[in-house]
Phosphoinositide-interacting protein (Eudyptes sclateri), 132 residues
Amino acid sequence: MEIPPKSPDGSEKSPQSKELVTSNTASTLCISSRSESVWTSASRSKWDIYHKPVIVMSVGAAVFLFGMVITSLSCIQIKNKNVYKMCGPAFLSLGLMLLVCGLVWIPIIRKKQKQRQKSQFLQTLKSFFFNR
């Protein structure tokens, strides 16, 4: 094992200690955190709240329609009929699953929004009565 030479005045640090000293991991984690606190009252638009379920529902509807087209091609076209019969129902079920997941996601978000509003209201009442 080789030990790096130390300078006589002790000002020279090892590469590991330089890395530890200059690392700002904790501060960057706190800055990049996307969790919302009860204390933040920044109002968000409807699109910011519901964009993920809307995208999932849109993709699900598109995949479902694509599955309908492929399934109908298995009835019309004679060439590659087995491929259409296998892929059509798979796309139908995948699209339906995504569509239902998006539809169920919206009431869950609404319920969380109501709970968050109640929590913020209770926090303001609590701070009002206990900070006198």
